[in-house]
UniProtKB/TrEMBL annotation:
UniProt xrefs under Pfam families: BON
Keyword Manganese: no
The keyword Repressor appears for this protein: no
Every BON domain range: 44-111
Annotated InterPro entries: BON_dom (IPR007055)
Superkingdom assignment: Bacteria
First and last residue of the signal peptide: 1-23
Protein name: BON domain-containing protein
Keyword annotations from UniProtKB, A to Z: Signal
Amino acid sequence: MSIRALKVCVGTLVLATTFGVWAQGGGEPISPEAASALVASKAKDKQLASDVTAAVTGAGVNGSKLKVRTYHGVVTLKGSVPSADQVQAASTAAANVQGVTAVKNKLSVRK
């Protein structure tokens, strides 16, 4: 875990315990453990997005117009690439990253 991610975790935990983070619609405070788990999940998604980006560019895909989003292991690839071959290569590279549970490939070929 990076220093920045650790700072975010600690900051969120402090806020949660100091101000009592309230759940949407439920009116019940989120426990410090739940707040910490939420921050850890977001940090894990951010790291996974970074790993997928590295894998996709490492597979020779031109990632200059590529966006990678992650949510609980599901990766969404958006943007455009120069060729149809790169659409498939990006999807395959993303799927092979440890921690990826599914890939939604929304890439298009640049015209």
